[in-house]
Amino acid sequence: MYLRNYWYVGAWSHELTTDAPFQRHLLGEPLVFYRTEDGEPAVLHDLCPHRFAPLSTGRVVGDAIECGYHGFTFNKTGACTVIPGMDKVPEKLCVRGYPAVEKWGWIFVWMGDPETADPATIPDFHYLDDPAWAGKGETMPVKANYTLLRDNLLDLTHAKFLHRTTLKTDAVTDFPVDAITSDKQINVRRRMVNIPQTSPLWTEVGGFTQPVTQWQNVEFTPAANIVIKMGVHSAENSTENKRIEFRILNALVPETENTTHYFWAIMRNFEINDDEMTEMTFTGNKSAFAEDQWIIEKQQAMMNALDNPTPIAVPHDKGVLRATQLVDRLIKQEQSAAE
Ligand code: FES
Ligand SMILES: [Fe+2]
Questions:
Q1: Core-most of 16, 54, 69, 86, by most CB within 10 Å?
Q2: What's the start-to-end Cα distance of the chain, in Å?
Q3: In contact, 251 and 265? CB cutoff 8 Å
Q4: Could you say which residues of the chain have pLDDT below 50?
C-alpha cells in the first residue's frame, strides 16, 4: 500500500545519460530512466508491449527509446512512434509515461495520475544545491519496508545505542520531543540545553571541548521524505563560541514491499569549501547509516518471521505514531477518491 499521487525521488541527476538507459523499480513498478538528446529526464514503464522485453535494453534516439529487441520506439510521453516495417503506428499503442522533474540534482518522479502532477508540490530538498550549504550523499539499498527507515529517523534516541562511535548523544533520552502535526507534515523537535557534550562526530567536526546546546527538528513530509535540521552551539556557560548546523536529507523510496532505495545526503553550513570536511561528515554519517541498515534489515526479518507483530509505543515514539497515522489517513483518502 503506497501513496501514489506524490513525487518520489527516482535517481540522481548524474545517473541519467543518453547512452545508458537503466531499470529501477519504484513502488513495485519497473521503470526505465534515460536522458533525451535534448537533456531532459525521461521515465517510462520499462516493459515493451510487443513481446515484453524491458525498454531499458534499448537505446535513446532523440527524445525516444528504441526497444533493444525488435526496435519498437516510444517517445518520452510513452507514445509509440515507430514500428519497424509498418508505415502507420496504431494510435493507442503506448507505454505509461511518468512525469519527471529534475531539481537540485535529483530526479523526481510522479507515481500517480499524470493529470494531477504539479511540480509545485515537489518536496523541499533545496539544500542539495544551495550555495550556502555543502555536502555529499549517495543511495543505500535497504532490504526492508520503507516505513522502518521512516520510524528510525523519527525517533533519534536510537543514536545513543546504535551509533556509539558517531552520532551518540548521551543526553538524548533525557529530553522529550514535541511533535507538531499538520495535514502536510509532522515536525518532531527536541532541544537539549546545556548538555556536557554532543556526539563524537559533531564534537570532532565542530571542535567543541565544553558544554553545548543541541537541537533537532525532524520534518517528515509524505509520501516518504525527511529533512533533519540540526545544530550544535556552545552553551551559555561555555567560554567557547562555536556553532555548526546540518541538514540531513532523506528520501525513502519503496522499491518493493520489502526493499527501499534510500537516497540521502548530509549538508552543512560551515567550512563549505573544505573538501576534507565534506568527506569526514559524509564518511561518519555513512557509517552510522550502515548501522541503521544493519538493524533495520534484522528487524524486517524478525517481523516477517513473526507475521508483523504489534509494536509497543513509548513517549519518544510520538513522531513515529503521528507519521503512521498521517500516512494511513492519506492512503485511505486516496483510495476512497479512486473508488
Ligand atoms: S519486445 Fe520490444 S520490440 Fe519486440
Ligand atoms: Fe540512525
A1: 16
A2: 15
A3: no
A4: none
